[in-house]
Amino acid sequence: MSARKTPKAEIAALRAEIREHDRRYYELQAPTIADAEYDALQARLKALEDVHPALRSPDSPTQKVGGAVASTFAPVRHARPMLSLDNTYNEAEIRAWGDRVLKNLPPGEAPVYILEQKLDGLSCALTYETGRFVRAATRGDGETGEDVTENVRFVHNVPMKLSGCSLPETLEIRGEIVLFFEDFKKINEEEVLAGRPPFVNPRNCAAGSLRQKDAQVTKRRHLRFFVHSYGDWRPEHDLPSHSAFLERCKEMGFSVEPFAKASSIDEVVAHYERFRDEGVSKLPYAVDGLVVKVDSFAQQRRLGFTAKSPRWAVAFKYPAQQATSIVRDVEFSVGRTGTITPVAKLEPVFCGGVTISNVTLHNFEEIGRLGLRVGDRVLIERAGEVIPKVVKVVERARGGKDIAPPRKCPVCAGPVVKEEALVAVFCDNPSCPAQVRRTLEHFASRPAMDIVGLGDAAVDQLVAKKLVADAADLYSLKKDDLLGLELFKDKKADNLLGQLSASKAKTLDRVLFALGIRHVGEKTAATIAERMDLGALLRASEADLMSVPDVGPVVAKSLHAFFASEAGRDLLARLRKAGLAMAKPERLVAAGAPFAGMTFVFTGSLTKFTRDEAEEKVKSLGGKASGSVSAKTTYVVYGEDAGSKLKKAAALGVKTMTESEFERMLP
User: Are 391 and 379 in contact (CB under 8 A)?
Assistant: First the structure.
């Protein structure tokens, strides 16, 4: 066991590690740890220096702003240092900061706080002389930044000439350069098409875009600038507060993000929680928390600064959405259609409010794209606070283990089939217990047969006890079979048998979807069932199936293989014998059928309807709703963040309309 480091040695090691991370973040735009991990290193170093003040030095990362000036850009000295903010991550820490503010103000002088969004972008300082833009610089090391004047001329909303009268003779405005999500997505699509690796996040992309040697590249990136402070204002202004400063910036033509005020830390915490739950997801750009400032400039002057941060402001961050961890192993999961999915087993890491130890790797093409091996350190992201994903490898392990597709099914040891250049790998045994479980869970799900009470635990027991091997076996279950399962008593057993009996009346579209035929989703099943009954499906050729709208060669091949197979026909015969009606669905069409002969495609985020509601409106009025755009499409209805479907409509000359225009078409 190695000897424990002395405080002096640990401080030296922390300083070296933090400086290397600063270099990777500010100069290379290629960080290898997440922000929260960097903050933890800084906090540990500061704590050690507080306990051992004799070991503190002026060049420590706790005394200076991170970053450096790249040799490719001319240096620019800031009018006064561009400092960073201290961070808080929870209610206890923000309350402790509030207590320090009150302690350093005269008794009874309660501050008003201003709350701004903490944009996740690149700090930049803009200098104006008598209202005209003359220079722009990055933060750099806080004292000296990089001259990016020519590039900033192409930032979308930076005014070249200020509005209003009585403009300052010299003005240095500070703010954040950001990239909207929609622009970030387009840029990454272009990078992939050009054979270059995509950017990790909008912040890195914004930094790289601003520091381009060719300003025309910056112009194409659609960067935006939002004000948060100033460095120089001559002659000195007489504004009383930060909120008054922001309002003055609006008058001069700058973009200012929305802000709020609070009269106590209680109100700060309430706004923080409300914005986290209701506001963040609606923003078009990335934020990682709030910036809380004392609003009064007079109180700010009383509170002053530390070596690298103002005492009157703090970042109140949300739980990290990114973190790094080490891939310790890769396991394989078998889905209902036999697809084998690689799952990374991570060293547990806290990210986005939860501890993450498993992350899906999707398929072996994705593993190849990442260049991932067991042992590598990876950056993970919990996008939208839902499913975590691996963004990139940030540190390759020496002697890392390659990840290869399994030669046998990890559940049943049956044969494995590789398709589409390893994008999909399948277990070829339809009796594989994993496939049977997933198939039955899917069969019983709400959009399929909607069999309440047939959940994961019940399915696991039924398969383990070999009471069912496929969906038809469910309808042969007796009460005694169910009473032999854990947690099943008389009432619960009767309820499940009643649900199974009721499901026999489900229409053909629900049954088609429930069967879990590869590539046949809920909408495709509904489209097919509206045009073909079960007898026609059993007789249909691939060409017949392709005549159905939205059914292409891949879906037609999958459908034909199922209905032509002995196993598929046998399953359907047993389901019919069990009493399943599988009748064609009846659609109530409004009188006059105003959408008869029309096909609608919906794209983007709708606000007045859900996608399902909008498509049901179309179908009830005699029209068709499709998931893809073709020359036969009548209208493409688009909401916010509409993408490739809208572009394809323009290329094909298909008419488009907004959601509001669609609503006005409805009777």
Answer: yes
Cβ-based neighbours of 658, under 8 Å, separated by 6 or more: 637, 638, 639
Question: How many domains, the chain?
Answer: 5
For residue 186, with 0-12 CB atoms within 10 Å meaning exposed, 13-18 middle and 19 or more buried, which class applies?
Answer: middle
Sheet with 313-317, edge to edge strand ranges:
87-88, 313-317, 287-294, 113-119, 259-262
Residues 413-468 pLDDT 10s: 888 887 654 467 888 777 788 889 989 999 999 889 999 999 888 999 999 899 99
Give the DSSP H/E element, type plus range, for residue 646: helix 644-652
- Answer whether residue 104 is part of any domain: yes
Return the CATH number at 13: 1.10.287.610
Choosing from 118, 317, 392, 619, which is the catalytic residue? 118
178 pLDDT band, cuts 50/70/90, is very high
Contact by Cβ (8 Å): 308, 62: yes
Residue written as tokens 């499709």? 626
What pTM does this model have? 0.50
Do 202 and 144 lie in a common domain? Answer: yes
| 8-state DSSP, 179 | -
Q: Are 10 and 49 in contact (CB under 8 A)?
A: no
Q: Which domain holds residue 45?
A: 7-55
Catalytic: 118? yes
pLDDT digits 0-9 by tens, 525-560: 988 998 899 999 999 999 999 888 778 888 999 999
